[in-house]
Every structure is written in C-alpha cells, then in structure tokens.
User: Fold this.
Amino acid sequence: MHVIGGTASTSLAERISRELGNAPFAIPFTKRFPDGEMYVRVGGRFEGEDVVVVQSTRTDQDLVELLLLEDAVREAGARRVFVVVPYLGYARQDRRFFPGEPVSARTFCRHLELDADVVVTVDLHSSQTLTHFSKPAFEASGIPAIARLLRERPIDLLVSPDQGGVDRARRMAQLLDKPWFALQKKRLDSEHVELSLPSTLPVAIEGKQVVIVDDVISTGGTIVEAAKLLKKRNVAGISAACTHGLFLRDAFERIKAVADEVYSTDTLGNPAEKASVAPDIAQILLRESSA
Ligand code: R5P
Assistant:
C-alpha cells in the first residue's frame, strides 16, 4: 500500500503511512499554472498496487487537488484507490434548507468518489452523509484519539456544548470513566449562541477540571460561551477538545483567553493538533484492503 499526502493533509498522511507499517509515503509535486489552475504530478508507477490518497477538503482548491490526485494515481496504474478525506468540506449543508439550494454534501460525495474504490472520512456533521456515496464509505471517529490524549490529563468531567453532541460526550465519558452532561444551546446566528446549564447536573461542578468536547470548532463562539458559563460556576479549570479544529479568524486566541488548554485531532492543520486519528484511519484501511 502506498500513501500519497495532499497539501492539506501531509502530516496526517505520513502518520497514516507509519501506522500502515511504514508504507511508502510520497508528497506529490504541485504548482499553479499562470491562470491559477492547479498542476499535480505523482512520482513513479503503482501497477497493481493499492494507493491511499489523503486530503482534507477544507477549501475548494483542496477538492480540486484531491480530484486531480485520484486521477493521477489511477493513471499511474493503481489497482485500488483508497480516498481518505479527514475533514469533508461542505458536509454541513447536508439538506436543502431553502428552495433553490444545492445539497452540497451530496454533490461533494458524488464527485470525490469518482476515482475512488473506498472512501474514509472522520466525524461527519451527520453520518447520514455516508449514504450519498455509492462506493464503500466509512466514518472513523475522532473520539478514541481525543480520549487517548485526555487519559494523560487530569480531568474530572466532560461537557457537551449542545444536545447534538450527547452521544460524543457519552462515548468519551465511557472511555475515560468520567461523568458528563450536555448544555442547552440556542444558535442566534452563525457566530453567536446562547447556552444554559441543564436543570439537574450529574455531579457538583464547582472545583472540577472540565473538558468541553465538540465535533467542530469553527468561529469558537460555542466554546467561548460554554467556558464563560462554566466559569461562573467556579470550575477549577477548563479545556476544549474537538475533532475538527477550523479555528476561523481569531477563534484560537479567543478560546485560549477563557480555556487553559485547547486540543484537536490532526484532521486539519492547526496549533491545537495534539491527538492523531492516524491509528483509527489505518485500522479501517487495513480492514478494507484485506476484505
Ligand atoms: C454545531 O452543531 C457543532 O457541533 C459545533 O458546536 C459548531 O459547529 C461550533 O461552531 P462555532 O465554533 O462557530 O461556535
């Protein structure tokens, strides 16, 4: 199995190659044509080989690069192409909210699977998105990676900032054998939320080391408000952990102003990338390549 790391996911791709028993790893050559179009070239031939292409699609350009890489490894003789999209962009528009809109998640899935035999992604906004793939598609979870990291940290309690994250907090709490609860969240607009504590708490939170766990940190508004709310209840310390750390604009600095630590997985390059999903992705790749 060969691993190719796209420009959006080079470090994670290298970690995946190590998890695959030091599978050959390569970074393709990329450049821009004068008109802005992208050029990619992979080195060598992959005749009869399985090739893993790793590329998050945070930006439109990342998606173009992924499509070109898939075609390039096919052209270079790959037998099977395993497409790993650690962060699947546009997945949040997973239904038509208003007439005239696209189902962005669906069209992304259709296009990025064109040259794929198997697709692997991580913590989708909604697991329903997997149904848009016609090829075998799998969702790795960021929870074990974050749990492996938190096991080394002094924590007492896990908090989900909203009801949508109940399963995540519960699963992580089980892995760490800690109590958890979920806040109530009302989204006011794309940047502002209103949060409140549930009427009953499973444990007293005063003096506790609390970790707020979320799937995505985007503007940081959710984590900042959650941290402020918990601080009012005199918790001893607050950390924030997520799978996908987008940290738009000054989100990272705003969170650091209210939280002691910020952790994310390595699905997107960011300063909080302290937990790797490479073992969890590699496990799926090994299973599917031998299926
Ligand atoms: C919402 O449903 C998600 O789970 C996250 O809570 C949300 O995307 C975080 O966004 P932001 O950082 O902009 O508050």
Q: What stands out?
A: The pocket of ribose-5-phosphate is lined by residues 161-162, 164-165, 193, 214-222 (CB under 6 Å).
